[in-house]
Structures are given as structure tokens and as C-alpha cells.
Please model this.
Amino acid sequence: MATAGGNRTSTRPLVEVKDLTVSFNSREATVQAVNGVSFEMAPGEVLCIIGESGSGKSVTLRALMRLLPKRRTVLSGSIRVGDYDIGALTERQLTAVRGSVVSMIFQEPMVALDPVYTVGDQIAETVVRHEGCSQKAAMERAFQLLQVVKVPSPERRLKAYPHELSGGLRQRAMIALALSCRPSLLLADEPTTALDATVQIQVLILLRKLQKELGMGVIFVTHDLGVAAQIADKVAVMYAGRIVEMGSVRDVLLRPSHPYTLGMLASTIRVDRSRDMEIEAIPGSPPDLRRLPPGCSFAPRCRYAESECTASVPTPTAIGAGHMACCFKAGSLTQVVPQAIIA
Amino acid sequence: MKRDASVLRGRPKLDAVPPGDPRDRGGKIQPMLVVNGLRKYFPVRGGLFNRRTGSVRAVDDVSFVVLKGETLGIVGESGCGKSTLARLLMHLIPKDAGELIFDGEGVGEAHGLTLTELRRSMQLVFQDSYSSLNPRLPVEDSIAYGPRVHGMSRAQAKEVARELLEKVGLNPGLFGSRYPHELSGGQKQRVNVARALALSPRMLILDEAVSALDKSIGAQVLNQLRYLKRHFNLTYVFISHDLNVVQYVSDRVLVMYLGQVVEIGPVEAIYTRAKHPYTRALLSSRLSMNPDDRIDEAPLAGDPPNPSNPPSGCRFRTRCPCAEDVCAAKMPTIGTWVDRSSHLAACHMEDATSGHSRAGSAPAAAALDRAIAVPANL
Amino acid sequence: MTDVTAGRGFAASSNDAPALMVRGYWRTVGYRLRYDHVTLFFALVIVLIALSAIFAPLLAPFDPLKTSMAYRLKPVGFRNFLLGTDELGRDMFSRLTYGGRMSLLMGLTPVALATIIGGTLGVVAGFVGGGINMLIMRTIDVFYAFPSVLLAVAISGTMGGGMSNGLIALTLVFIPPLCRIAETATTQVRGLDFVEAARASGAPTRSIIVHHVLGNVLAPVFIYASSLISVAILLAAGLSFLGLGVEPPTPDWGLMLSTLRQAIYVQPYVCALPGLAIFITSLSFNLVSDGLRQAMDVRI
Model:
């Protein structure tokens, strides 16, 4: 699969995922959370995985660090990050990789930060653990990191506990913690969903800036198309555990091909359209992951569905350079999204 | 509690409510709800005996009007007091000061509406969370609870519940006996709406009704709400932090910041010619779907200040690009509201007599855009 | 294929939610229990113990009170004595089955009474809040401060021992934890949105408690109460052991353990039997209540 940006095809991709399948087994049912996901990402690129609840995006992200519950999870397929084959690492090797090569930030900073330690202590702990320097040096680094993420009065905040910080500051502290060991890949699981609009834009701009400065790859999971438009280089749209469309951000958002992407864009609130008209909502709701419908998972809700759609699962079809969609009608449905949507 | 069953004598009709609603007391001119000087301070307790050391000024001197048949959108970020406001309007928490007048009659006063009557006129739709429906009751029982409390027989209430389920788009045979944990988020939200409508209210307050839902499901629910508003001749107060949704559903919009109203006006005016610096910053923080149209600098830096210790004078001045000394000295007033086309902002730049250097001059709005992203002090 | 009429998106949602979701709450609990073999086994044990206690007159081959000087402390399987005899020549098997009645009674009754009394106090305290809450809960805390065994012994001893005093003492010991559980659960439930919605529809307090609060509070209270049964059985046996419970010659496991204590070097297996009975009963209740708790913890 060609990566975005022709001059980067010679560089080895930072992340290579092939045929990732994750299912959760319990006695009652087997939940097929991820069904055959494959993608690549170049170093220093921002990939946004867009999907709604139940699409498998968070599970995919956690599979990249093998953060899923061991007993119930069945994971197959290959995952490579940098020089590491994530699937083959032992627990100890995995612990060494987490935080130093791959790092993650979460939606709820109060969940990710330990409430009984100060922010400075937590960042320093990670630095000491992975780089083996002294506590003093680690604290110095923590101070620098807080400056980098634009936390005001960093000396004071180093000694603060997480609950003493506001939501936006906590999020920044969590980003500082994630960046403390200069990872080459940052995983972000909806870090701005719980933030107000004015704080969200600050955090997104900060992430973009840091990503450029550090040359990090970022995989950003979100349900908000606007977030993808703001920071992504590449976009993958997931539905029911599969990637249904992937390509550069301009390709997917301005020239969408898959009916689901089209539906999502059409159901966003349009600025120009008369308020007397109804929103074109996608009917129905996402399928139950314990009982996926045969063939294309989106077929029951798709206005273009035909008999071949329920007969077999569509395979990736190339539409343009680096742009693919999993749809039997890919290419024939392409419409340029009217400017009015994107005001 | 003496139940007033007289209003519910006979089965309430769930057919469309005609414009000449028999419950209407004042006609079209009279506002549905008048809010005057509403205030609610929450005590901050500390010290040895849990003494009151301060107050969180959740809602501070809020006044506005809701006209009949309109949708008033209330926007603001976290901590602005909009959820507290919703509960104050519903009389779920007692107010510290102010008055609420529903269709010309005060609430709780001697000759005004009783609380029971208010409950039947005004209802609240909660944000869909796991706790918005009783997990032990099938959803039709949850919906039927309200009418039963007001004296309807069990069979009738169940009938009403099933009709409402159908009106919100859920097949009563399939969904009526289900428990909340067997429903998806969008379905639970429809049940919430049905529950609110069970008492045939005239006004609905929707507190972040679609915020927790996926965008595509939320779109379905919004379409639903639009249909129900026409069918039942309702008035909506739509509270949300999502500016795009508010723009779509509202006729007029009210913007709140730290417990106060900072701007109010018709929706097109607010979204195209916002007057208050906070509103403009909020609008500029919206993300566009166009990857070529990225925001490079955050319109507003920092976080909102502490609601228990707000800045003196104008509460927005610590983040406002145009703040001056007068902003710290005097709190701006919002002006006098006249009718549905009034567009007012609580800002010294709007008030020609305030002493602000940019007061009363037309370029004030344009100057704001240039001054954006450089806060006076952080 | 769905029919997508433009705009009527909301009506099409009736196609949602495949039939997999329709299994009710209790059926899910039953389903989970079906595969929990440990719980099922010990539930069977409880049933057997209960049945043997209820049908003791039919099961017991001998009169449990009939002494016999000739056949004192005989071993297991001696002649017709299935499990041997005690120090006064009475058949152990008969005494054990009759003793089961006492132990189960002394175990279940205090817990049942304490659930009713403590539960009510806790719900009232939790719902009303404020000063009444403080009054009730701080009083309860005073009782809670004492170790349960000491408290039971103290109360029972002061009242003079005997079965009914023992019951009263045990009930008083179990009221504080149940009250606390009920109060915590009620306080939590009271703050949830659906209770606010019930208030918003104008419901009176009594109706809200009955329809909305109780249903959600009873589950944690019952589960906790069921876990207390095993403790109650142990405590009741302890009281009898100390001579503060049932009076001789009524068969009771704790009492039997006490009187057989001296003969333990003579017939160790026979003398250990009452202790074994207490252990098995208490363990069974413990494991079953645990299994029930896990099965009932059905979330979304």
C-alpha cells in the first residue's frame, strides 16, 4: 500500500499492521472487535482513525501496544512498530517498549494520572525507568516538558497533584508524561473528546506542533471529522472492525468514496442549508459485534446496497494514489463533496 | 400530596396539538418563560466544622425570556452554569434569588402556578448516561411513571407510554418491555424524550440531549425532536456545548460564561455578527471539515478561571484581548431586551458610555478578530 | 434492504437491535449460574443440609436425647450408630441432623431480622440525609466499633444467655453493617439522573423510594446479607460453644463441640464432627453468596 507523499516511499514505514484480528471470548459470546485491519504509516506522519462507537478503533489502538486483557483476547495478524514485532515480544520486552518507543494518551486524564503522586513525580518516574538517569535530572526534564506543553507556571505545577489541575492542564500533563521518553510513535485515544471547544483547539494545535518538532508518528483515534481535518495527514475510516476507507486527508474528506463516509459527511450540520430541512441521518445503528451480518457490515444501512454486498465482504479497491475503499461500488460513487458542507 | 387528577380526566390525546392550545393563557405575545435575576450560589465548605468559606457562583444574576414556540439555544463551556440553570428552571434545586414566570404566572406564589402544575407544563430531557433511566424498570414503566403519579390508571398510563414510544420511533411491541441496558445510546435517548413527553408538557428543556451520542445517531434524534416539536406544539430550551448543533436547532441563542449571560440574540446574528469577544472566540474554535481550512492559532488561551473566585468586574477580562482598566473596575450590563430580534452583549465595548477606548464604535467587532490569540494576561 | 426515505431516518430505527439483546436480566443471571459449577455444587450442599434439618424426625434413626451409658463415645459405624455416639451415648447422626435445625435457625433469623431493621434505617438515613442521617449513622458507628464476637458475647451474657437472647444479640450485631450498606447504596442512587427525573415529574417522596430507589438498593443489600449468613452461623456456634446460646440437652453444633471437647483424645473423629458440620455449612453459604454476587453483577 503506497504511503502518502511520494518522496517517502523509500523510507520504511514506522508502523505496519497486516490482517489484525482481535476478538474477545467469553462463555456467552465472542465479540469480533477488529476484523482484518491492515495499514501502514510513515515516520513523522499523523494518521487519524475515524469511527463511531463499536467500530473497533480503540481496540486497534490498544492492540498496537498489546494493552488488551490477556485472558479473554485472541489476537492474530502481524504488528510491527519501528524495529519491533509487537506480537512476538515477551512481557518484559513489551514493558521496555511501552513508554519509550510507543506512548499513549487517553481520553480521561484523571484515569491515566495517578492521583496520589504529583505530576512531577510521575513524569520523573517514567524518565528514570526508561533512561536510567538520576531523579534530579529527571525532574529537570519534567520541568522542561511542562514548558514545552505550555503549562503556565511549570515550577509550581510540578508539585501539584492531578486533581488540583484543570481539565486542559491535566491533558497537557498527560501529554508531557507521554512524551517524556521521546517515543517515535504516539497513540492518542480521543484525548480531546471530553474537552471544551476552546481548550480542544489549543491541545490539537499543541499536538501538531510537538509532532512536527519531534518528528513523531501519531495515530489519533476520534469520532470527530473536524479533528481529523485539523491535524491529520492520513485518514482511515473504520466501521464494525474493518477499515472501509483510507487515504490522505484531502482524499477522504473532500472526495469520499465509501457510502459510510459519504453518509457521515452528509449528516454533519451544514451551515448554508435551510434549517427547515432535516439532517440526512444514516438510518439504523451499528451492528452487534457478536453477530456480524454476512458480507459487508454496512450493507443493512447502505442506500446503495445490492445482493452482492451481502454475499461477500468487499476487498480493498484502489481509487487513486494511496486512496482505497472497501466497497463493490468504489469509484462509481465518488462525488466531490459540495463546498457548502465544509464552511 | 393531593393529586390534581382533574387535568388528566380522560385520556390525553397524543395527536397533534393545534396552534390554539387550550392550555395557553396569554396568547402568542406573552413569553412562555420569563427569568429575572436568577441566582444560585453553592457553598464551598472547609475548615474545622465544615463552615462555609466561600461560594461557587454557579448562576449569577441571569435574566432572559423564552418565547412561545421558539427554540432557545443556550451555549457555554464547562463551568458556565448551564446545567445548574436547567435544574433551577425545573425547580429541582432551590434558587437563592430571582423569579420565574411561566406564561404570565409566577411559580410557587399564592395565586400562581403550583409546583405540580409546573411539572406538567415543563419537563427536562437528560443527557443520555447510564443513570438516566432506572435500570430495574422496563422502559415503558419508566415512561408510564409520570402519568401514574398524577393519577392515571395503570392501563391508561401504559397505553400512553406505548403511543409515545411509537411517536419517538421505537416499536412498542419490540422495545416496550426491554430494560435500559438492552438499548443502544440513541434508543435510550428516545426513551428519555418519550418520558419527558408523557405528561404532555408545553416546554421541554433539553440538557445536552445529543452530546453523548455518535454523530449519526444524534442526527436521527435531532430529526425526531424537530418532528415532535411541530406535532406537539412545543417550546424548546436546548442546552449544549456543541455550537453546530445549537445553530441548527435554535431560533435564538444565549451564550453563558462563568454563570452569567454574555450575549443573546437571533441565531444568524450570533453566528455571523457576534458582539462579545468570548462568543467570537468560541465560534472561531469550531473545527471545519475542510483540511485546507485549518486553524493555526488558538483563539483563546488558558482555561476558564475558578468559579468560586471570579475576577472582579467583567469575568472574561483575564482572557480577553481587548481588556482595559474599566473592565476590571465595572461589571458590564447586557442592556434592555426588547423583542426576538434584539441582539445584546454584556461588554463595555458595546456600551458607548462605559469608558472603554473602543466603546460604541463600529470597528469594535473587526478589531476583535485582529486582536485574537493575544490575551491581556494569562 | 432498508428503505431510506429521505428525512424519515428516525422511523427506520425500529430495525435496530438484533434479537440477541432480548434476554432478560434474570435469565442472564440464570445463564451465568448454570456454568458456575462451584456455586451449584455448594448450593446443592445447602439444600441437602436444609432438607436434613427439616426432615430430621424422619431421618434420625435414634432419639437425639436418649442417652445410653453403655454406648458412650463409640466410633463411627459402631453397630447402628452411623457416626458414633457422644459422651452421653447419644447417637451423633441424630444429634447432628437435629442440631442443623438450631444452627440454621440461629444463622438465618438474625440476618433476616437485621436486614429488615438495618435496611430500613439505612434507606431512611440515605434518603433523608442531613441531620437525621448523621444521627442514625453515628449511632450505628458506635456499635460498629466493637468486634462482632465480643459484642455478641457481651449482649448475650448480659441478658443471661439462652436461645432467644442469643438471637437478639446476633441481630444487634448485624444491624450496623447492613444499615451502612443500605445507606451507601441509597445515597448513591439518590443522586442518579432517573431519580431526578422522577422528582421532575412531580412524584411524592414515598413513591420515589418505593418505585425507584428500593429496587436498586435491595440487590446490594441482599447480596451482602447472604454473605453474612456464613458469619452468623459461626457466631451462633461460638455463642453456644461459650454456653451463651442454646441450653443442653438441646442438640446444637456449637454446644456439641463444647461438650465433646474433653473427649477429643478418646474419639477424635467423632468429636470433630460438629466442627466439620459448622465448617461445611458456613463455607457453603459463603461460596454460594459469592457466586450469586458474581452472577448478579450483570452490567451493560
Remarks:
- The domain at 22-250 of chain B is CATH 3.40.50.300 (Rossmann fold).
- Chain B touches chain C through 50 residues (CB under 8 Å).
- Chain B has two domains: 22-250, 271-378.
- The CA atoms of residues 144 and 159 of chain B lie 8 Å apart.
